[in-house]
Specification:
By secondary structure, the protein is an alpha/beta fold. It has a single domain (3-203), classed as Vaccinia Virus protein VP39 (Rossmann fold). The chain is 28% helix and 29% strand. It is built from six helices and nine strands. The strands form two sheets. It has a seven-stranded mixed beta sheet with strand order 3-2-1-4-5-9-8. Strands 6-7 form a two-stranded antiparallel ribbon. Strand 6 and strand 7 (158-159) form a beta hairpin. Helix 1 (3-13) crosses helix 4 (74-84). The longest helix has 14 residues, at 122-135. It is globular, with a radius of gyration of 16 Å.
Length: 215
């Protein structure tokens, strides 16, 4: 089944709180963002950020003004836009498969929670990394969160790849350095634990100074 078809079906059949990756708050992602102290006009893209993702709304609450949400599922994007209501117009919405994504611009921050680990084919993993290379500015940061080695082997009816931080370092290549890694035990709405690893990467190069108020 094609990815878009699968995820449209999932989002059509299930409420947000029935989805295993549902978060009331994107607590760890926001903590990492606070540590980075990005200016509020930083260009941020959230990969797979449709559906029940809380991050876009929370970033708007924190004053960020240049947000992009990418998702393979049109239904996921529709649901996220509906939840943001009138604030949805403050976000750029992109419907695309990450393995064929050509970024329309470069971003200061690339955020991916639970997309990469669904790419089980090496060619798809390489395509995702290639999109990251095209889409992240020199000196920019990437937050990549995947199932940890002790997480379940499947999610939402699909096999996943469980990553260790060093494996992600090798996958991203020499342009990226691992700044920090974190573990999180996510509790699904049904109370089942899922072990995640969050990795913060910095791309080599000197970022151009951004104008705007820092948080």
């Amino acid at each position: 089944m094609e990815r878009a078809e699968h995820w449209n079906r999932v989002y059509t059949q299930k409420a947000d709180t029935d989805l295993s990756w549902y978060q009331v708050e994107a607590t760890l992602s926001l903590a990492i963002l606070k540590q980075l102290a990005l200016p509020t006009n930083a260009a941020i893209i959230d990969i797979g950020g449709g559906g029940p993702s809380a991050l876009a709304g929370e970033l708007l609450n924190h004053g960020f003004t240049r947000l992009t949400v990418l998702d393979v599922s049109a239904e996921a994007l529709r649901r996220c836009r509906q939840r943001l209501d009138h604030r949805a117009d403050q976000v750029m919405w992109l419907e695309a498969d990450i393995t064929g994504f050509v970024p329309p611009q470069q971003y200061d921050l690339w955020h991916d929670r639970a997309v990469l680990h669904f790419l089980t084919e090496p060619k798809d993993q390489r395509a995702c990394v290639a999109a990251l290379h095209r889409g992240l500015k020199p000196g920019g940061h990437a937050i990549i969160a995947t199932f940890a080695p002790d997480a379940p082997p499947t999610c939402s009816g699909l096999d996943v790849v469980r990553w260790e931080p060093q494996a992600l370092v090798e996958a991203l290549g020499r342009e990226f350095s691992l700044t920090e890694s974190f573990r999180e035990t996510h509790q699904t709405p049904r109370g089942k634990p899922q072990a995640f690893v969050y990795c913060l990467f910095r791309r080599a190069g000197t970022p151009q100074p951004a104008e705007g108020k820092r948080r």
